């Protein structure tokens, strides 16, 4: 199949240059033949004819030179582009075309140079997406494998156990594993819809009330750790996708609770300004170093391995995607051992 393609593509690339060259040879033959015929017939050729003949010969030479230049600077890059496009079509995203730059290093702005540059950018993005897809499948497989192994192991223990208290404990572990799988599946589906540009369904809703509702839903978690919540919420009405924004506050507050020690403190604040509302949540938990902070919005990334069993590394990735799709911004400030602060900017 590849040999057939190669055989068909080669004449296509040189067709115009060959046609041009053949035309030039034909014109040269006509001029030369006319000259020798006239000379053989001993026809006197006046100056005007000599001017025509010389002009014709000069045109032939110029045409040959132009044909070579066009072939070098136009058809050769097209041939290279066709070759690498064929490789990309077969899944090879490592290809790159050589870009022509100015003396100062800037890319030339002519059409062919810009086409080459944009092609390289496209291939780079395809290569990144391929890597991300591979990593995503690998991570999902790992995240499913662990709770499934726990379920299987505890089910086998229950089968051979006669202690009722021990059986209850094993059942609780199975329920927790199933709950983690359910959460993981839901988050993956939400991320998939967002990454495939799911249509947002905005409506007016009270942001402060939605945040209070998220705090109430998570009450068991923060009361269990005896965490003190300082809440200061302005009354704010916004026009966004209400169900998606509910996921933002639940994830951010849950995350703060998870990384705050017992008897800790979390400050939740919502302030309204002329053109935006700003939500801030600060905890006095373990904080993050710069390395962790630079990766926290990546899928499946978990900075604190000791608390990995409490989540699946998709919460903050989901938050970031929702806010990006809604044209909002999230910032994070953190210092290891000194807590973290997440700030969400919401245009009104």
How does this model look, in words?
With 348 residues, this protein is of the alpha+beta class. 61% of the residues lie in helices and 13% in strands. β4 and β5 form a beta hairpin. The chain has helices spanning 2-40, 47-89, 111-159, 164-195, 207-217, 219-224, 242-258, 290-293, 315-325, and strands at 202-206, 228-233, 237-241, 265-272, 276-283, 329-334, 340-347. α1 (2-40) runs antiparallel to α2, α4 (164-195) runs parallel beside α9 (315-325) and α5 (207-217) packs across α7. It has a five-stranded mixed β-sheet, covered by helices on one side. A two-stranded antiparallel ribbon has the order 1-3. It is elongated, with a radius of gyration of 35 Å. Residues 1-13 and 305-309 have low confidence and may be disordered.
| Shape label | elongated
Largest sheet: 5 strands, mixed
From the helix content, strand content and strand pairing, which structural class follows? Answer: alpha+beta
Give the termini distance in whole angstroms. Answer: 58 Å
Beta-strand percentage?
A: 5-15%
Tell me the total number of β-strands: 7
The radius of gyration over CA amounts to 35 Å
SSE pattern, N- to C-terminal: HHHHEHHEEHEEHHEE
Q: Give me the side-by-side strand order of the main sheet.
A: 2-4-5-7-6
* Secondary structure tally, helices: 9
Helix proportion of residues, in percent? 55-70%
Unreliable segments of 5+ consecutive residues: 1-13, 305-309
Mean model confidence by pLDDT: 76
């Amino acid at each position: 199949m590849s040999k057939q393609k190669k055989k068909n593509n080669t004449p296509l690339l040189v067709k115009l240059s060959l046609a041009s060259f053949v035309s030039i040879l034909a014109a040269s033959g006509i001029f030369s033949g006319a000259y020798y015929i006239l000379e053989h017939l001993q026809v006197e050729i006046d100056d005007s004819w000599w001017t025509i003949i010389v002009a014709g010969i000069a045109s032939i030479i110029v045409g040959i030179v132009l044909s070579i230049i066009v072939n070098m600077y136009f058809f050769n890059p097209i041939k290279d582009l066709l070759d690498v496009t064929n490789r990309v079509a077969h899944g090879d995203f490592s290809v790159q075309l050589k870009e022509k730059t100015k003396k100062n290093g800037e890319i030339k702005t002519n059409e062919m140079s810009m086409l080459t540059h944009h092609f390289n950018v496209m291939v780079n993005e395809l290569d990144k997406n391929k890597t991300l897809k591979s990593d995503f499948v690998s991570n999902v497989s790992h995240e499913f494998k662990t709770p499934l192994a726990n379920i299987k192991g505890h089910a086998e223990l229950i089968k051979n156990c006669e202690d009722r208290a021990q059986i209850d404990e094993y059942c609780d572990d199975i329920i927790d594993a199933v709950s983690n799988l359910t959460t993981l599946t839901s988050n993956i589906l939400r991320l998939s819809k967002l990454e495939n540009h799911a249509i947002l369904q905005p409506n007016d809703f009270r942001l402060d009330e939605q945040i209070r509702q998220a705090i109430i839903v998570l009450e068991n978690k923060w009361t269990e750790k005896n965490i003190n919540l300082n809440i200061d919420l302005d009354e704010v009405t916004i026009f966004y996708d209400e169900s998606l924004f509910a996921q933002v506050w639940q994830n951010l507050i849950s995350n703060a609770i998870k990384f705050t020690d017992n008897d800790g403190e979390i400050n939740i604040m919502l302030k309204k300004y002329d053109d935006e509302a700003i939500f801030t949540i600060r905890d006095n938990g373990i904080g993050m170093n710069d390395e962790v902070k630079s990766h926290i919005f990546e899928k499946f990334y978990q900075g604190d391995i000791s608390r990995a069993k409490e989540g699946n590394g998709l919460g903050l990735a989901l938050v970031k995607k929702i806010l990006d799709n809604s044209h909002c911004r999230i910032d994070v400030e953190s210092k290891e051992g000194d807590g973290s602060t997440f700030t969400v900017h919401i245009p009104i």
